[in-house]
Structure formats: C-alpha cells, structure tokens
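Justification of resources, computational component.

The compute hours requested in this renewal are based largely on the per-chain cost of generating structure records like the one below. Each record pairs the submitted sequence with a full structure-token output. That output is archived, and it is also reused by downstream analysis tasks.
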Amino acid sequence: MALRSKAYPDNVPGAFFVDTSCIDCGTCYTMAPDVFLDAGDHSSVHHQPSEIQRMRASMALLACPTGSIGSEDKASMAEALGAFPDPIEDEVHFCGFTAENSFGAWSYFIRREAGNVIMDSPRAAQPLMKRIAEQGGVKMMVLSHQDDVADHAAFRERFECERIMHSGDRYPGLERYIEGDDPVQLDPDLLFIPTPGHTAGSACLLYRETFLFTGDHLWWNPKREMLSASKNFNWQSWPQQLKSLEKLLDFEFRWVLPGHGASKRTDTPEEMRKELERGLEYLKKL
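The structure output for this chain reads:
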C-alpha cells in the first residue's frame, strides 16, 4: 500500500502519487501516459487526471505490482476493479494486476470459443480471477520464459489449465514442455515459437497470425521509435537472441505484445516485417 509520507517529491500536487517502493516496471506510464511518466529510476505523476483520465489512472494503480501508487480519490476504484481483463483488440486483453516477482511483466488473456488462453501469469488477484471465471475460465496458460511465471500455480489450482513452456528453462512442475527449436501448433490458431536467447527457453506465442506475444524477447521502444531487445538484460546468448529475432521474419503478425516494454500495432503484416527488419539492423550493430 502506497504511503503519502514516502511519496516522491517530483509528483505534481494532487490525489494521485507514486511512493518510493516503485520498481520502475513501466506499467503505469504505459497504461496511463497522460498521468504517469518515467522519471528515471522510478515513475511519477506528471499530471493529475481529469475526470475522463481518472478511470485509466485508477486501473494503473490496481495494475501496479508493488502497490506503489496511491490516491485519496476513490471515485473510479470500484469500476476499475471490474475493468480487467482490459480489451486491446478483438479477443485479446491485458490482464492487469502485474506481479512483483515478474518485475511487473504484462500478461494477456485471449477469449476463444475453443478455450481461453493466458499468456504469462498475472498476479492471482481475486477480482481478476472472478472476471476470468465469468468469461469461461482458462484452458491453457503459455509461459514465455522462467522470469514471468508469477502466480501460475494459483491459476492451475483454480481453473485446472494446462501450463505450457519450453523445456530449455528447466522450470519444474508444469503439465507440458515443448522440445527443440521448431514451432509447435498448440491449436489451429495458436503457434508456439521457440525463440532462445534471452533465456534458453524463451518463446513467443502467435495467435491468428495477427498477435505475437513476445515475453522479454522483443518490444517497441518509443524513445527510439523502433522494435527493440536488450543486450544488457540477456541471460543466455545475445547472438542467439538475434538469430531468434531473424526467425520471426518468417511469420505474419501485426501486433507485438511484450511482457516488458511498449506494444506495437501496424495495419498490415508487411509493415510489421519492415519494422522488424529496421530494428534488427540497429540491434546487430550493438
């Protein structure tokens, strides 16, 4: 729970604030950039929300993995509790309720007639669990790599979902492990793509040849205005990660939905391929 006594001094005066427990995961300023910003090694409030912006700011408060956002304004809080999973496009939603032990990594909910899917695990918050149950529960949970598993066991216990991960990360206790480097069709509309490099077991999930869920493998960098990856935060092999990024050129998608970093949408797969080629050109020079 955020404490006003520990609020950063660079918050603008008003109801909403960020305190010193912030881990700078980026969730709040990605969700509500009109209210929150990246202040270097932490987030802060740069503009108190208008009545229109208050709902989004309240949702960011709930999504914060460390409870570092506080507010004396509770007017939108009850509505915000019921707003997750938060729609992105078509059947794809942001789960919210990010987890501290995943450093605030984003997870996603896909509502499908063939069975709902969660990509990476959110925090097992009861309002979220209730909403997911109302929407049909979870058939499978796909985990991009060992860092973003969060409360996967609680979702397994509640929904009896099959948890799927690549064997390369040697993470124990799941129902299914994917072997090798070849893509595996989980369902006609779901393709598991091994992308080792960030970790040995890193993988992406492609849904309907439209939405690519990338974990910590690839994201949009708004400052450079290009698709990017991190050489510094690489736990296996940077050359291998570059090869895995090149591998994605063989697939069609127009959304990149990462665990960390900003998402990116293009109008066509061809535009996204050009963005990936441009990003790779830069990354290969690092």
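The domain at 84-283 is CATH 3.60.15.10 (Metallo-beta-lactamase; Chain A). The first helix runs from residue 27 to 31.
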